Amino acid sequence: MEYNVNNLLLNHQSDNTIRIHATLIGSRIDAKPFRADETLAINPLTIAVPDNGCVVLFRYVVVFFGMTMAQENQFLQRLLPLTHEPRNRPDEESLHLRIDPNQLEGADADGSLWLHDTSIQRLQLVAEMLARSAVLSDDEGRITKTFEKIEPLAQNLSKKGRVGQPKQVLLTYIGDSLLSQQRMVGRAEVADKPDLLWERPELEGLYLRLEDEFELRERHLALERKLQVISNTAETLLDLLQTQQSHRVEWYITILIVVEIGLTLYELFFKGH
Which end of the chain is least crowded, N or C, by CB within 10 Å? Predict the structure, then answer.
């Protein structure tokens, strides 16, 4: 039997508006301890919250439907022992959901999201897209910081012809870039359709509109380009630095050879007579 949470959600909203709030709370959420009688659906795991709404859990993100801030905080306290590397300042995304079977599903000019109903599959799809947006926001913040650090190095090379940073710093930037690429591949599979569309293909139109609304594909591509610039810049500067060091060593060797030859000639021509 399909579970519908209209009553749970709308009973607590005076204007038939449902608050949706997604927060990235850590590097991984362990959802195993949740009881079977709390579970509305899986893949993604959807938990019933008595008289309040529901919660959808992902590996890094929790998405709340129809809950107050106090109720959300109470649930987050329950999740805290199950969260690996919890965030002090979680990345967050939020919007307001309205229900109307005659309205085109998707976001309107006011930023509200319209759905025909609050079936579990629709809520799961909305939750997944909002969770992806939260993950991308986290990636954007981290990658932008690295990008801002690498840009002055390229400017310094252009103006002064010098790298301006030690080898260890450049290796750190390359490592940050590789780690960010790994996280993006493992965390936000933005280009992939959600699994539930295989069972509910009629929701693909809603999926495409949400993808466009959150600009998921464009943001993902922009991050990939930034990562490529960071990686290429750091590797180029590192190569230049190593080349400079290699030339310096070659000069040291040349000087030592010249000195050695000079000493040998001195001994032959002066000490020998």
Answer: N
